[in-house]
Amino acid sequence: MSTAGKYFSLFLGYLHINAKGLLEYRVSSLIALFGSLLNSAIWLVFWWVFFRRFPNISEWQFVHLFTIWAVLNVALAFVSVFYNVYKIPAIINEGKLEYYLVRPKNALFHLLIARMRLVDLVEAFIWFISFIILKPELPAVILFLVMSVISSAIIHGFLLILGSLGFFLKSADGIGTELYNALITFSTYPNWIFGGATKWIIFTVIPAGFISYVPVQVIYNRVYWWILGSLGFAVLLNVVGCVVFSRGLKYFETGNTFVLRAD
Amino acid sequence: MLKSMDKYMAAAALSAKNYLAYTSEVIFRSGFLVVILFVFVNLWTVTYSRSGAGVIAGFDLRQMLRYLVFTESIVISRPRVHQKVEEDIRTGAVSYTLARPYNYLLFQLSVSFGERMVRFMCTLLVGYAVMTIMIGPYIPGLSALPFLAVTVALAMLADLIGMIAVGLLAFWVEDVSPFFLVYSRLQMLLGGMIIPITLFPSFLRRLSEWLPFRFMVYAPARLFVDFDLNRAWGVAVGQILVCLLLFLIGMSVYRMGVKRLDVNGG
């Protein structure tokens, strides 16, 4: 079997194990799904009230806000397939990294796929169907999927960089959580409320603009060059993340905690 | 009556004293509050500017932003008392409290209230600093401060009793988190945390007025930005009634739950 085949087989193996886990703990999974949907619903009611009160505040309407929430949630669901990307600092600090280092597979790939939150894919499906109902046009649906995948790659790359800082900083977990929360918060608001330096920040340090403004530009205004722009940025973030992780591995020294089976 | 309340006041004071050790941590971990306030300042500044309205739903821009600082501070300062109650019931620890000379609900209320007061002061300090930098300082009238302190305390008590009542559902269910989720999200929207209820369409506003959440968030925040003595009395009376009602519900749930308590082992 080719190397790619072996890695794909490993991925399928973990997918199978995680799917069994989902079925085993279906009640808690359903609770998590319900919670996430309820939270989104409350924010959408807020935006519905807002645009009902201020219909001419910008060219954006409720449908645009719904779209950025849908893109973000589908993107987060794709990131959940590599759920350990959220846990890298904890994995490093709690002695769980060694488990992956002694295996005959790329440590980063193995670590990322070892834990999946597959219930989020159910949520992604609900958002996807909602978007189709909202905008039943094939090109818009295809662009929605494309932008969701690119947005997920951007979030993944962002988390990978922040998580890999755990090799160098003890407080990487806290800093990473704050920056991730900022990314998600900025991603759920229209970009036209920001001005000055913030407009630059949301396209660089906290790349929320790629998750909120860009999908709306591509799906509704058909500004296709944004697809290439955000794809390039997604690739860049992930490459930088891989480089920081591999540099961190060279810097890494194992502690006296050794976990036999990590997740 | 007052004498029997001494132990609960002591528990609240001790809890506040304990939590004072973590004030710097709470302040430094307020990144989310800073981000959300920054976003709200941008959103409402643009909204007021583009709509050309000086006053929206009874608030001018500065009042709206101060209102949001206050509501966020109230809600973010919430300790996870429902989880503590759930854990006590699940582990059987609640059975040890039956023989102790205190009311379990009042004891949890006192401990969580002490912690919450400290957390609230910290989050309000951070929020106040952010707002002062972005829109300038604000000092409410000195005569309003005692009323504000009372109304904030009552709002927190009402919320904490509600949370404990949710936690007590652990007598029947394994995990109370879905119930708390519904409670907290209803409070977030219908309590007026993210948007004043005066902005709601009439059916949502009516719904909000029927539920107790507005006494926990909207009412004290409104008084903070626009103090009115008559309204303050009305709010305080409403809050006391909500506290009593929630306490009665909580005690009924507790008594029903304790009757079916079955503890194994020692």
UniProtKB/TrEMBL annotation, chain A:
InterPro entries, sorted: ABC-2_transporter-like (IPR010390)
UniProtKB keywords: Membrane, Transmembrane, Transmembrane helix
Transmembrane segments: 30-50, 62-86, 140-169, 189-211, 223-245
One Pfam family hit: ABC2_membrane_6
Descriptive protein name: ABC-2 type transport system permease protein
Automatic annotation (TrEMBL), chain B:
Keywords for the protein's UniProt record, in alphabetical order: Membrane, Transmembrane, Transmembrane helix
Keyword Transmembrane helix carried by entry: yes
Transmembrane helix listed as a keyword: yes
Coiled coil spans: none
Highest taxon listed in the record's lineage: Bacteria
Transmembrane segments: 26-46, 118-139, 145-173, 185-204, 232-254
Matching PANTHER family: SLR1174 PROTEIN, SLR1174 PROTEIN-RELATED
Name of protein: ABC-2 type transport system permease protein
